[in-house]
Design brief:
Layout lengths: L2 H20 L19 E7 L6 H16 L4 E6 L7 H9 L5 E4 L5 H4 L10 H8 L2 H14 L1 E7 L4 E5 L13 E4 L3 H10 L2 E4 L5 H7 L4 E5 H7 L7 E8 L3 E6 H6 L2 H35 L3 E3 L4 H6 L1 H12 L1 H10 L2
Parallel strand pairs: 1-2, 1-3, 6-7, 6-8, 9-11
Antiparallel strand pairs: 3-10, 4-10, 5-8, 5-9
């Protein structure tokens, strides 16, 4: 081989090595690693009147457990029981401003919905559901959304409202002149006026001391609230009047709800429903237990014939029902609750 040919061969070998070094096999070329997106962190403030131990609050704790677990900790739920964030009206204002994101309360935000709690109008949660799912109920929910940017997304159950008092009560006439604490709503005031009592509107936080000092002789609430508040410690009688059946509404800020991803929105709604079911289970177990504990504490439980109580409050239902809803809607509601 000539020197010239030798140089050509050597040059070709060198070039082959250079090109080989510049091109790695496809399997050795690693694609740049993709960084997983960081999940959004969300904090929910959830307020209520209810106290630890009440079925409704247990339902809220179940909601918290489900949401935090199934969001892998990306949603934190802070619970604020016992009106820690202010009176119900103040909490509603915070909800409308999205300062808090959820609340449970007997006040759903507008009069039309709340007055379904007129005395002896509703017998069960099923009747509440029937009315709220009707065209009338949907109309009211739209009014609430338009007025305050709030939507009701579920219930927490409460037992029927009954009376704790220091006097024996068997008929409406036995209420005559008794000073009883009631919530600051006219349908409570008018109900106990119809019974013959002297109703005294008062914030819930003031009730225990008012009973202790004799400012009032009694009060009314569901049995779980009476027990949780310790009223059985300072009252002699428990009167099973069942005068109002009323759930706690679970309400949320619409802007907050719309800001959630579809997955998180579905999770919130599912957790509200699961919380309701859990609270119902607890409430059904607690009723007889609370009665037994109150009797052990020295209370006497009286179960009066309710027919006279229903009769004397007919005027309250007719007057307030017509004034709030109008005659046509009131009659439609009566048909749905027969």
């Amino acid at each position: 081989m000539t020197k010239k040919m030798t140089r050509i061969v050597v040059l070709m070998m060198v070039l082959a090595l250079v090109f080989a070094g510049c091109s790695k096999p496809a399997e050795e070329t690693a694609a740049p690693e993709e960084t997983a997106p960081v999940a959004e962190k969300i904090t929910i403030s959830y307020s209520t009147w209810a106290s630890d131990g009440e079925a409704a609050y247990e339902g809220m704790e179940k909601f918290k457990e489900i949401v935090e677990t199934e969001s892998d900790g990306n949603i934190t739920v802070n619970l604020f029981p016992a009106n820690q964030l202010g009176k119900t009206e103040e909490q509603l204002e915070q909800l409308a401003l999205n300062t808090i994101q959820l609340m449970s309360s007997g006040n759903p935000g507008i009069k039309e919905l709340e007055y379904l709690a007129l005395p002896y109008l509703m017998d069960s949660m099923d009747e509440w559901t029937t009315v709220l799912n009707s065209k009338i109920g949907q109309k009211w929910n739209e009014q609430l959304l338009e007025a305050k940017g709030i939507v009701n997304i579920g219930f927490l159950p409460r037992s029927p409202r009954i009376v704790s008092v220091n006097e024996e009560i068997n008929t409406p006439a036995d209420f005559a002149g008794l000073k009883l604490r009631v919530p600051e709503r006219d349908y409570y005031v008018e109900t106990f006026k119809a019974f013959g009592a002297n109703p005294t509107p008062m914030d819930f936080g003031e009730v225990y001391s008012a009973l202790q000092t004799g400012v009032v002789s009694g009060q009314e609430n569901p049995i779980e609230t009476i027990y949780a508040a310790g009223f059985h410690e300072i009252q002699d009688y428990l009167i099973i009047t069942n005068h109002i059946v009323k759930p706690a509404f679970v309400s949320t800020n619409k802007q907050f709800l719309d800001s959630l991803s579809p997955e998180y929105k579905e999770l919130i709604l599912k957790a509200v429903d699961e919380g309701r079911k859990y609270a119902e289970e607890i409430m059904n177990k607690q009723g007889a237990d609370f009665e037994a504990k109150m009797e052990e504490a020295g209370m006497t439980i009286i179960r009066p014939d309710l027919a006279p109580f229903v009769e004397v409050t007919q005027g309250v239902r007719d007057t307030l029902g017509t004034s709030v809803w109008g005659e046509e809607d009131y009659q439609a509601i009566l048909e749905m609750t027969k």
